[in-house]
UniProtKB/TrEMBL annotation:
Lineage per the UniProt record: Bacteria, Pseudomonadati, Pseudomonadota, Alphaproteobacteria, Rhodobacterales
One Pfam family cited in the UniProt record for this chain: Ribonuc_L-PSP
Superkingdom, natural source: Bacteria
Cited CDD domains: YjgF_YER057c_UK114_like_6 (cd06154)
Natural source organism: Aliiroseovarius halocynthiae
InterPro entries, sorted: RutC-like_sf, YjgF/YER057c/UK114
Name of protein: RidA family protein
Amino acid sequence: MTNIKRISSGGEFEEKIGYCRAVVAGGFVHVAGTVGQGDTVEEQCESALGIIKDALKKAGSGLDHAVRVNYYLPDAAEFEPCWPILSDAFGDNPPAATMIECNLIDPRFRIEIELTALVPAD
């Protein structure tokens, strides 16, 4: 039987929609699409990464073990200001990545980040 661990961040949408921030299964941690707080896309990007880092830590992983990341933005032109933040966050361990322009659940959100990372063996 596969062990599954569910991680909640207590975000307002988790209970409303019926999901959790992350699920650890099969040697990977799958982090749900995550938005952050702030007025600018850069602030929201940094905030979302902080929430993701916390979930990864609870799962026994980190950004250095990320293998896949998806970025969702309502305005593709706002992705470039995030590049230095993302490059700094992933450093020498960049994951495979995709950026998609689409609507988000609330118009105040300017970026949503979804990530999958390996959970290193003990």
